[in-house]
Amino acid sequence: MTTTDDLSSQRFYHGTRADLKPGYLIEPGDPADAAEQVGMTTYVYLTPDLDAAIWGAELAAGEGPGRVYMVEPIGRIEVDPRLTESPPHPTMSYRSKEPLRVVGEVTEWRLYHGTRAELEPGDLVKPGQTPNFGRRDRMTSYVYLTRTLDAATWGAELAAGEGPGRIYIVEPTGSIEDDPNLTDKRFRGNPTKSFRSREPLRVTGEVTDWRGHAPELLEAMKDGLEQAERRGVEPIDD
Q: 63: domain range?
């Protein structure tokens, strides 16, 4: 078990579809909390990983938009023992049998772009690049970005070209839309928070402390993409 004193400086998040206010107590089995996993009503879940809370919100049961809240546990918490060392996607990794107090809602988000290009603040990332997947004799009609660092990490690791993968903080110069390649596909909604735009992205900074995926996950992803290419699957980019 871990006490709240052990993690007093840690910020925790909780993903749900419930519309909650500061001070609300999220309790195990609370019907207002739609983020509980099916059949799991003994615990309430939280995470220090913002990406995991985004996934929790998008995969939550119920209607309405996914929401991410900053929360503080009021009792003892523990690492969820059901998690594997390399889960297939970010997952809320702590749990408690006691309520979580809502501190506030996350409403401002960074946007990221993963690539192998070496860029500087102010540079524009434009459509018309060689795609990372599918036919290489075409140019992309869109440029891609994401709200989750996990998805940007995949972009950096799978990017075409030479050199190390890089992740940049970007801001769109035009409208963005959900990436149809990743929305309502394997999972409901857009849990990777992946978007695309026909207008350039402006680089505002670089993330230098990101960690790559486990080698077995990266290899499995590459194998899956290669199998899809052999079947003639092309990304939606029109």
A: 4-105
Both structure tokens of 69: 């809240």
Q: What's the residue count for the chain?
A: 238
List strand residue ranges (DSSP E) for the chain, in order: 12-16, 25-26, 44-46, 67-73, 78-79, 94-96, 100-105, 111-115, 124-125, 143-146, 166-172, 177-178, 194-197, 201-207
Are residues 220 and 139 both part of a single domain?
Answer: yes
- Does 189 map to a domain? yes
Written as six digits, the tokens of 233 are 């699957």
pLDDT in tens, 18-73: 999 999 999 887 655 544 454 446 889 999 999 999 988 988 888 889 999 999 99
**Angle, in degrees to the nearest 10, between helices 215-230 and 149-158:** 60
Q: Structure pTM? A: 0.79
Q: Virtual CA dihedral for 192, 147, 169, 165, nearest 10 degrees? A: -10
Name residue 146's beta-bridge partners. Answer: 112, 194
Instruction: Please measure the distance between the N-terminal and C-terminal CA atoms of the chain and give it in whole angstroms.
Output: 51
CA distance 27 to 25: 6
